[in-house]
Write a structure and sequence with these properties.
Length: 223
């Protein structure tokens, strides 16, 4: 997996700088759209909480979580400040919460696809070996990777991540409420998984599958 620490450890200064720049692009552009997508879908499904609290905005200041931002810049995955959603305002709470939860990762996958498209395009046109174009190419490669990693991270079915809301939609009501009770302990479990490296292995597999999927069409077009 790409990470700033690995690049620094291996003396890859250029790659480290480009990784941070790509991370900043994700933090200030992609992550706000991720959270805005959550709020917009919730708004369309009847919940105005995000709109009332000023979260239906592209302004990154409204969405940035300092710890999540640092994680993105260091490791390529993390989180933003969650958009508030009130389930009681949704017509079909379990189904609609799943749709709201999916909206964020889908936004990241769209950004990842666009980044992969530019990556393969620039690879194809840089026949002269331009260093400048090479740097831009690597920037888009890292952008695609970080967006995919964010989508994959958020789709892990562990509360409070988006994947838990998607999974909950398929659970019987009794199992659903028991599952949601686990959320108070889930952050501790999540930190343990990150600290032990277990999450890295899981995320690496998810990221690999998503990268293959989003790269298929651009690779087919540009060879």
């Amino acid at each position: 997996m790409f990470s700033l620490l690995n690049f620094i450890r291996n003396g890859q200064v250029t790659e480290a700088v480009l990784f941070v720049l790509s991370g900043c692009f994700v933090v200030f552009i992609c992550s706000p759209v991720h959270e805005l997508a959550h709020g917009w879908v919730a708004y369309k499904l009847g919940d105005t909480t995000a709109k009332r609290e000023g979260r239906l905005t592209f302004n990154p200041i409204a969405h940035i979580d300092p710890i999540g931002m640092i994680m993105i810049l260091l490791f390529g995955f993390g989180f933003a400040k969650p958009v508030p959603v009130s389930m009681r305002n949704l017509k079909n709470p379990k189904r609609d919460m799943a749709l709201v939860a999916l909206a964020g990762p889908v936004a990241n996958i769209v950004f990842a696809f666009i980044s992969a498209f530019f990556f393969y395009f620039l690879m194809a046109v840089n026949t002269s070996g331009s260093t400048f174009l090479y740097y831009i190419t690597i920037f888009f490669q890292f952008s695609a990777y970080i967006n995919v990693a964010l989508a994959g991270f958020n789709l892990i079915p562990l509360p409070p991540l988006d994947g838990s809301k998607v999974l909950a939609a398929f659970l019987p009501d009794k199992a659903y409420y028991k599952y949601m009770m686990f959320e108070r302990y889930a952050m501790i479990a999540l930190l343990v998984l990150i600290a032990t490296g277990v999450l890295d292995r899981v995320l690496e597999k998810i990221t690999g599958v998503l990268m293959t999927a989003i790269s298929f069409l651009p690779a087919l077009i540009f060879g």
